[in-house]
Amino acid sequence: MSQRLTAQARKVPEWCVYIVGALPAPWLFWQALTGALGVEPIEALEHEYGRLALQLLLAGLAVTPLWRLTGVNLVKFRRPLGLLAFFYLCLHFLVWLLLDVQILSQAWADIVKRPFITIGMAGFLLLVPLAVTSTRKAIRRMGPKAWGRLHRLVYVAVGLGVLHFVMGRKGLQYEPLVYAGILVVLLGLRLVPRRR
Ligand code: HEM
């Protein structure tokens, strides 16, 4: 069963994942423009992009435990998932900067003075070197060991992203805690020994 699923996944071209994964971006933007996202379209768009980014990051972190536990190998999708997550984070950031805050000095003040924004920014910045070094050429140039060490930063970045989500909501709310729980489970599963 796991071999069949792995073989089927191998047939899906990477570019397909990029196209399907990127489609919600213009769709959500269009919905915001046409009022389908409610009375606060900018805030709603910002939230949708942020949530999608986090979901894709968590999906990327689920690839290895899934392989270890079930034998289903979706490793070829890890890079597209990571890059799509980064793409949505850039949109999340740009909606915040260009449509929400709009004033550069105010944006800087928010980054410095509002802890949940500072933490989100730190998570975002940590993901920049990972996105830049996501090519096969970069892996060859850095060597797999150094590359692997650098890419472990993804755990810190996702941890900061989840914390940012928890802190961004007023009071302790159910939804961000679910994301935090999923992250804890995914991290815990990495402790499970590899299948032979
Ligand atoms: C790893 C990086 C980040 C992740 C994973 C992330 C994810 C999220 C998520 C999931 C939400 C909540 C959406 C909701 O309430 O439904 C959110 C909200 C928000 N994020 Fe981010 N974000 C990140 C970085 C940033 C950065 C760099 C900024 C801006 C500098 C930012 C600004 C905001 C703002 C303003 C909100 C709205 C909070 C509110 O008023 O409810 N985020 N983010």
Can you offer a commentary on this structure?
It is a single chain. This protein is mainly alpha-helical. The protein has one domain (2-189). Helix content is 81%, strand content 0%. It is built from eleven helices and no strands. Helix 6 crosses helix 7 and helix 8 (136-142) crosses helix 9. It starts with a helix and ends in a 7-residue tail after the last helix. The mean pLDDT is 94.
Number of individual domains? 1
Number of strands: 0
Helix-residue proportion: over 70%
Radius of gyration: 18 Å
Query: What separation lies between the terminal Cα atoms?
Result: 17 Å
The H-and-E topology, N to C, reads as HHHHHHHHHHH
Major sheet characteristics: none
- The best one-word shape is globular
Q: Could you say which structural class the secondary elements and strand pairing correspond to? A: mainly alpha
Bound molecules: protoporphyrin IX containing FE
Mean pLDDT over the full residue set: 94
- Outline the low-pLDDT stretches: none
Tell me the strand percentage band. under 5%
- Tally of DSSP helical segments: 11
